[in-house]
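Subject: complex prediction, re-run

Hi both,

The earlier run crashed halfway through, so I resubmitted it with identical inputs.
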Amino acid sequence: MIHRIDAGPRMSEATIHNGIVYLAGQVAEDGGADIEGQTRQVLAAIDALLAQVESDKTRILRAQIFLADIADFPGMNRVWDAWVVPGKAPARATVEAKLARPDWKVEIVVTAAI
Amino acid sequence: MIHRIDAGPRMSEATIHNGIVYLAGQVAEDGGADIEGQTRQVLAAIDALLAQVESDKTRILRAQIFLADIADFPGMNRVWDAWVVPGKAPARATVEAKLARPDWKVEIVVTAAI
Amino acid sequence: MIHRIDAGPRMSEATIHNGIVYLAGQVAEDGGADIEGQTRQVLAAIDALLAQVESDKTRILRAQIFLADIADFPGMNRVWDAWVVPGKAPARATVEAKLARPDWKVEIVVTAAI
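This time it finished cleanly. Structure:
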């Protein structure tokens, strides 16, 4: 069985199978925000999606982070470090990649246990 | 137990473990095709690999899409949107990244349930 | 239950859940090494982390490889091909992406069965 959250015609915001939730890449609602603001919005979106499946940030297995400009690495990390729960941090990888909209600065793809 | 499809000396086209199939990044056979043609070829390759493990596109959990030029986002989406089954779309993330061969325009990495 | 290896304040080097280990993106310790040297260091780090959970390179399900310069594809492959066990190679995808430190040439993100 596969469950889905916000199953649209192009993608679902999340799929759930066998105790794992696979989130779609999350981006900021407000592309005008700076890297800290966008990271805050992305992490809030992740929190909200995980809450829908009764998971939370302490149960993230891996986060793949894409930054449109790798120079935003310190700014993203300032917000990330304040958000993550010490001792419960996921495996993580961060690379630079241009995103689908030019005003997006960060996209995060999360896999979590339920 | 891990099963593999087309296990070569460098990589396998897919690995299967505990009800999940992990596909290798799929690219076009004909690098001369435009973005729509390449996307069609990539999705056909994904269909064929999923069929080998009795899965199909309605059981994809996540698709990670890499476009050599993010300007091809609309062209890729035209083919993707016609291919995906409404209500059964996977979680998805799309970013720009140069690919291993300069003529490749799109590479898609799929994780699916069997 | 989620187990973690080297759980720091920002990330863990690996998370383990339900028979799968999710490694963080691995990079070279010595950023001054060339692509072959850095690939060797990255693969050694992967070997060491997998050994900690009694897994090994024959049980990798997928490797996502990021190269800061896709021109390093042949050099990375020379080391990779000598490392992988024929018949036991994982699914793989390789794309170009700038990495968090400018001297890093390759980052590999591994998912493996235990």
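The mean pLDDT of chain B is 98.

- K.
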